[in-house]
Automatic annotation (TrEMBL):
Domain of life of the source: Eukaryota
GO molecular function terms attached to this record: zinc ion transmembrane transporter activity
Membrane spanning residue stretches: 6-25, 46-66, 86-108, 231-249, 261-281, 293-312
Subcellular location as annotated: Membrane
GO CC entries: plasma membrane
Topological relation to the membrane, as annotated: Multi-pass membrane protein
Ligase in keyword set: no
Official protein name in the record: Zinc transporter ZIP1-like
Keyword Transmembrane helix: yes
Keyword line: Membrane, Transmembrane, Transmembrane helix
A Pfam family matched in the record: Zip
Length: 342
């Protein structure tokens, strides 16, 4: 008989892929140049992003971080290692956040330099003839320079803007694709149906919003339709690829090596979730003065949706996540003494 968890994970792969494709290609098919700005700044995408941010926040703090701690503790116990006083699980989570941040900043810096060099070169080319003209020709030269600038600047500005938009789209694709792979890994590593459904909902919702945003960026960068479709399909397969990787790791033998790989991958994925939550979703949405209370309500709704799912989870009822592992085997003998149970 096929394991129910495996069936749910396969369904999660299909659902996530289909939703990402639909939302990613939507702007290219339906959004015209006249209403792109309205669609991009609409209320519904912003509230969906805030809801996804609340879901990711609760998932990170209440579910994934305890899972990372459990897996790494099992791995270290099997390898007869210890790390007294050092928060190794949180360190791995932080490394996941810094890894994604580093990749994104390096990509942005790499693409920014050629564009800046072109702009600086253009400025030098315009300034050099002015510095070499005679004083008697200053007025005429300046007038002619202004006429040439008025004629040339619009085309140059358009070229620079299109180039910048194109590079921004590629950088965005690289960054969110890396997020998507690790988010998919987090889904594939789950061992229970309820946990898979919980993370699948969060990932599918977030991927849909991000796919729509990516599609908008690709359309605005004036890329060809074939390129836009190809990049949208590429992004759509990143999360399913991560889920498949997580399933392969989770289905391997339950050794200390397995727990170590699972713990590290889950920790890196958790860092990605934190990056998406704080440095992308919430930071971007809350800087606007529009619909602040509605956005706050959407964040709280997403957070407490996960809390409700955790209370419905039978594994949560056993208390595995309600208290740190070091306190689960303690009983109170007196008010002043704690006795470790055998």
């Amino acid at each position: 008989m096929v394991d129910t968890v495996i069936v749910v994970k396969i369904a999660a792969i299909v659902v996530t892929f289909v939703l990402t494709i639909l939302f990613g290609l939507g702007p290219a098919w339906f959004v015209s140049a006249r209403n792109q700005r309205y669609k991009q700044r609409g209320r519904t995408p912003a509230l969906l992003s805030c809801f996804a941010g609340g879901v990711f926040l609760a998932t990170c703090l209440l579910d994934l971080i305890p899972d990372v701690e459990e897996e790494l503790n099992l791995a270290l116990a099997g390898a007869h290692l210890s790390y007294p006083g050092f928060p190794l699980p949180l360190f791995v989570v932080a490394m996941g956040l810094f890894m994604v941040l580093t990749v994104e900043q390096v990509a942005l810096q790499y693409h920014h330099r050629p564009l800046q060099a072109r702009r600086n070169g253009a400025h030098v080319a315009l300034e050099t003839p002015v510095s070499l003209i005679n004083e008697e020709e200053d007025v005429n030269a300046m007038e002619m320079g202004e006429m040439r600038a008025e004629t040339a600047e619009p085309d140059q500005g358009d070229d620079h803007e299109h180039l910048h938009a194109s590079l921004r789209s590629w950088s965005l694709l690289l960054a969110i694709s890396l997020h998507s792979v690790f988010e998919g890994i987090a889904v594939g590593l789950q061992k229970e149906t309820s946990a898979v459904l919980q993370l699948m909902t969060a990932v599918a919702l977030h991927k849909s919003v991000m796919a729509f945003s990516l599609g908008m960026a690709l359309v605005q960068s004036s890329m060809g339709r074939t390129t836009t479709v190809g990049l949208s399909i590429f992004f759509a397969i990143t999360a399913p690829t991560g889920m498949a990787i997580g399933m392969a790791v989770e289905s391997s033998s339950q050794s200390s090596h397995h727990h170590g790989v699972s713990g590290v991958l889950t920790g890196l994925a958790t860092g990605t979730f934190l990056y998406v939550t704080f440095l992308e979703v919430l930071a971007h949405e809350l800087k606007s003065n529009r619909d602040r209370l509605l956005k706050l309500a959407a964040i709280l709704l997403g957070f407490f949706t996960v809390v409700g799912l955790m209370f419905l989870d039978a594994d949560m009822k056993e208390g595995r996540h309600f208290c740190p592992e070091q306190f689960q085997n303690l009983t109170f003998a007196t008010d002043a003494e704690l006795v470790q149970t055998p």
